[in-house]
């Protein structure tokens, strides 16, 4: 199973949209709330240099990007390839 990690925050519509897509695809993910755990924001910035907005999504330790990037992968039919990579 692919390791999916989502750095998110409370009341973030993009975070909600990204998580909804993952749930719709019946994919399990680990969620890190950067508002409740500020150290996770630091971790996120180290893993995705230059990324300050949320969500930031990683699949098998590879940086996907944000909500729009995740949806673009799904639309292009490339999400499954990312899920299979490294498994």
Write the layout of secondary structure elements.
Blueprint: E1 4-8, H1 13-24, E2 30-33, H2 38-47, E3 56-59, E4 62-65, H3 67-75, H4 79-84
Parallel strand pairs: 1-2
Antiparallel strand pairs: 1-3, 3-4
Helix pairs in contact: 1-3
How many angstroms does the end-to-end distance come to? 7 Å
CA gyration radius, whole angstroms: 12 Å
- Helical stretch tally: 4
Task: Summarize the amount of helix as a percent range.
Answer: 40-55%
Look at the helices and sheets and give the structural class. alpha+beta
Q: Give the averaged pLDDT, no decimals.
A: 94
Beta-strand segment tally: 4
Which percent band covers the strand fraction?
15-25%
Poorly predicted tracts of residues = none
Strand order of the largest sheet: 2-1-3-4
Query: How does the major sheet shape up?
Result: 4 strands, mixed
What is the ordering of alpha helices and beta strands?
EHEHEEHH
Shape: globular
């Amino acid at each position: 199973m692919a390791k999916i990690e989502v750095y998110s925050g409370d009341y973030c519509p993009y975070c909600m949209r990204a998580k909804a897509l993952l749930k719709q695809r019946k994919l399990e993910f680990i969620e890190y709330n950067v508002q409740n755990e500020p150290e996770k924001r630091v971790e996120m910035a180290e893993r995705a240099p230059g990324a300050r907005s949320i969500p930031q999504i990683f699949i098998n330790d590879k940086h996907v990007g944000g909500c729009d990037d995740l949806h673009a992968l799904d639309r292009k039919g490339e999400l499954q390839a990312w899920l299979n990579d490294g498994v």
